[in-house]
Structure to design on (615 residues):
């Protein structure tokens, strides 16, 4: 790299700017739709189902804080936050990426300029990261409105720490997903990802109930999923029950996925955009 | 016409006599797309040099290797073999620096259709790290140059094909490039839109911009190119100015004659005309080319040839005498008509 060429982050920021210029057109509607789905989950499951769960014999399943059982809404909400991050990440890393390479071809315009394929990849992942941050922040605010935030943890900042945790969870999906999506010729793979990756993770990664409730043979698989790490990280921080060891383990696992995604993205973007 | 700000002063790549682009034995081989398939050689060892201020064309049918060559020059396709130097730099090492000084009009538009015309220029200018004020100033000039000033605030989607092409040309000029690369700039445009694009490209040429373009339109190459190469199957079949090539590979004029399809007259005429080859008289035929729909007779005096044809008992349904064109050169060099 020669002296008068800006460093990679500067170049990726140019791609990010382009994506933000485009996003200015649609941000209102996207915010509306991206809070609606998690909001419905919070109301239907956390509040309504939660009342029944808290009154039933399983009320102690969700752990205790200071000897009192954790309310289901409080148990569920941080994991729904992690799920929001995952769903935003996968949604923003699939169709928009394929569109940019195949339908409107704006990635090709970018690599004809001084940007490299890797700069474009990185700018796209940052953009998805921003979208995750926005949706997670909105969701966290909604949680607070519903009294789903347990602010009695150490210093009361647990819920705020859940925000970067949610972003990291989302990026663990976004970095590999953007890398993979650019290599696609058709969108058929995306619906498979939604159906056979996103939905099973949503249901079985410890969002609605502890993984220990699953049959013993499938538990190791559930613990290996990135979403379980994200769920447990967000929940532990939000409730103030996390230990330094668990935070480090989860963060390391999720960061490793980001790193693998970035390595993979450098390859797939180069192959697709500069064959 | 709008004045376009000159390129900011830059250190020249080399002395003025040095080529801006130099390719020696340039090859591009794509790996097999399927397991066990054959690799595909798109460009098979070509040499060329491009000098400042000239308009250089790559002419050839689809699949000749023109676009692959353009993409290697544009630093968006790594070379397989040979040498390529652009602005004195190696694209394998300095792709970003080279691209900062190039303008590219790709074969397929890559505009953001949902955004406004001006926003497309803004995003592209930012890719080059230009300041917003600078982009705004240049955008106004460039939109006037491509006659889109009144559409600046319109979204791109509803624009016609010709307008989108002109916007792509404006976009490619946002960084005041030293070399403008155009890959089939007028393919898919209606005749009127093509003429507008040619007019703008001609003005750029007059203003001293160095242009490299590919085309499979002979008239485009003849009108715009100072020098061109004819490519066929990944190789260069001939090189020179349009006039040179016509002189070297064709005659001054061409007589085209047509017959009733299926009447057998076509075949008979080819046989008879072959008898008039190199007769030494006025209208002597240098070459006979039989196309599916017509017979071409190459000579230096088409009218005299027509008279000789009539004299030998051939009565065509229609006859046309025209000047020789690059199409004839192409036909001669590759032995077939240009297929799109």
């Amino acid at each position: 790299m020669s002296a008068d060429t800006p460093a990679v982050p500067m170049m990726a920021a140019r791609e990010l700017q382009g994506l933000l210029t485009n996003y200015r057109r649609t941000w209102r509607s996207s915010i509306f739709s991206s809070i609606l789905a998690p909001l419905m989950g919070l109301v239907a499951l956390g509040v309504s189902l939660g009342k029944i769960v808290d009154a039933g014999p399983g009320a102690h399943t969700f752990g205790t804080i200071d000897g009192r059982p954790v309310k289901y809404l409080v148990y569920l909400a941080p994991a729904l936050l992690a799920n929001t991050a995952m769903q935003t990440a996968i949604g923003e890393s699939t169709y928009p990426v394929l569109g940019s390479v195949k339908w409107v071809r704006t990635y090709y315009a970018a690599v004809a300029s001084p940007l490299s394929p890797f700069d474009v990849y990185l700018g796209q992942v940052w953009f998805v990261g921003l979208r995750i941050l926005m949706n997670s922040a909105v969701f966290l605010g909604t949680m607070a409105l519903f009294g789903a935030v347990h602010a009695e943890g150490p210093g009361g900042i647990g819920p705020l720490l859940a925000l970067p945790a949610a972003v990291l969870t989302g990026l663990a999906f976004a970095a590999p997903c953007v890398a993979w999506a650019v290599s696609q010729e058709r969108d058929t793979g995306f619906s498979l990802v939604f159906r056979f990756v996103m939905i099973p993770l949503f249901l079985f990664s410890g969002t609605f109930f502890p993984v220990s409730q699953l049959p013993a043979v499938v538990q190791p698989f559930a613990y290996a999923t990135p979403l379980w790490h994200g769920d447990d990280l967000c929940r532990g921080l939000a409730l103030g029950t996390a230990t330094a060891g668990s935070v480090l383990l989860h963060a390391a696992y999720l960061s490793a996925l980001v790193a693998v995604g970035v390595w993979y993205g450098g390859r797939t973007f180069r192959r697709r955009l500069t064959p | 016409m709008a004045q376009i700000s000159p390129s900011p002063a830059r250190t020249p790549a080399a002395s003025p006599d040095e080529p801006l682009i130099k390719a020696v034995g340039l090859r591009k081989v794509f790996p097999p797309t399927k397991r066990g398939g054959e690799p595909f050689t798109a460009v098979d060892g070509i040499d060329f040099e491009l000098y400042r201020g000239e308009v250089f064309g790559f002419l050839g049918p689809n699949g000749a290797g023109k676009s692959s060559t353009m993409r290697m020059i544009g630093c968006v396709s790594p070379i397989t073999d040979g040498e390529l130097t652009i602005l004195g730099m190696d694209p394998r090492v300095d792709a970003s620096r080279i691209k900062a000084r190039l303008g590219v009009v790709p074969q397929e538009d890559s505009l953001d259709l949902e955004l406004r015309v001006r926003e497309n220029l803004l995003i592209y200018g930012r890719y080059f790290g230009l300041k917003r004020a600078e982009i705004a100033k240049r955008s106004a000039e460039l939109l006037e140059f491509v006659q889109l000033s009144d559409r600046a605030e319109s979204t791109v989607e509803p624009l016609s094909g010709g307008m989108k092409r002109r916007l792509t040309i404006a976009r490619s000029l946002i960084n005041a490039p030293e070399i403008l690369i155009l890959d089939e700039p007028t393919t898919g445009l209606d005749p009127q839109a093509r003429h507008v694009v040619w007019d703008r490209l001609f003005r750029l040429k007059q203003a001293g911009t160095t242009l490299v373009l590919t085309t499979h339109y002979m008239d485009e190459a003849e009108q715009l190119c100072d020098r061109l190469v004819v490519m066929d199957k990944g190789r260069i079949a001939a090189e020179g100015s349009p006039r040179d090539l016509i002189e070297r590979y064709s005659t001054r004029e061409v007589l085209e004659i047509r017959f009733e399809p299926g009447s057998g007259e076509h075949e008979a005429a080819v046989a008879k005309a072959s008898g008039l080859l190199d007769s030494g008289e006025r209208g002597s035929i240098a070459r006979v080319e039989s196309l599916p729909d017509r017979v071409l007779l190459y000579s230096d005096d088409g009218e005299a040839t027509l008279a000789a044809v009539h004299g030998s008992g051939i009565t065509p349904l229609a006859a046309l005498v025209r000047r020789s064109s690059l199409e004839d050169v192409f036909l001669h060099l590759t032995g077939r008509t240009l297929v799109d």
Observations:
- Chain B touches chain A through 33 residues (CB under 8 Å).
- Confidence is low (pLDDT under 50) at residues 8-14 of chain B.
- The radius of gyration of chain B is 23 Å.
- DSSP finds eleven helices and 13 strands in chain B.
